[in-house]
Write a structure and sequence with these properties.
12 strands, ABC transporter substrate-binding protein, six-stranded mixed beta sheet, about 300 residues, binds alpha-L-arabinofuranose, alpha/beta, signal, Peripla_BP_I
Length: about 300
Amino acid sequence: CAFALLTASVLSAADKPLKVGFAQTGAESAWRTANSNSMKNEAAKRGIDFKFADGQGKQENQIRAIRSFIAQRVDAIVLAPIVETGWDPVLREAKRAGIPVVLIDRTIQTADESLYACFIGSDFYEEGRMAADWLAKKVNGTGSIVELQGTPGSAPANERRRAFGDAIAKYPGLKIIDSQSGDFRRAGGKEVMEAFLKKHGKAINIVYAHNDDMALGAIQAIEQAGLKPGQDIIIVSIDAIKEAIQAVIDGKINCTVECNPLFGPKVFDTIARMRAGEKVERKSFNKDELFDSTNASAVIASREY
Ligand code: AHR
């Protein structure tokens, strides 16, 4: 980890409780709420002086939060970057102040990889690929897809779109006929799906949603149009929140690929290891599964988010 030595000297100096600032994207989805809670609960368990900033969906709020964490001389900054680009100046400020930055959930694009200590999250490309491969099998490589994209410019929207496109390119009968952002929100998914149904009507066979909240919003629009989600229109989605697993059991979502948000313990373990001067993995990916009608019932009771 590029910051290992720097981190060791900065963090081990503190006898006081560890002070960590977390710049979260916002509260756009059930996934996000579960992720925030995982971080807050774990920080409380460990007696960490934890400063939580809700970016309310705006990069400028997250940048402001990072500057405030620097001014408060936190021991480490955790950032879930809402979009991929535009972070270099503020991360340079953190580096100059000797504060390591741990990226979680989403990656960034930067020419200077030394601006962050390490990354912890899911492999969004793999999630998109899993969704596409499952779908291709389900529909025998034929169908007209509408895509509900996540927040424009965000790593999950970019990667899930790219992976899905790459995978369905192998099936000439599978086509994306329309694609728009619902911003990872339930209301966004509903609104965009209403517009898709108005424009394309019965030509739509499949919805690919970049997250469950948008899929659940789309289900409302589909039902309001008098159609049966999961039957008239196949729905594949990502996150595997409890409500979506229930929708799989109810036959309204056909498949949801997991994106596990419960990695608070892993984040604080990593910060503790960095503090002890240990080398940590540069990029660490969570293991994600896929749920459909064959396995959803078996996991619903133990689903934590
Ligand atoms: O970055 C992870 C994505 O962000 C989740 O899939 C989505 O639900 C969230 O808002």
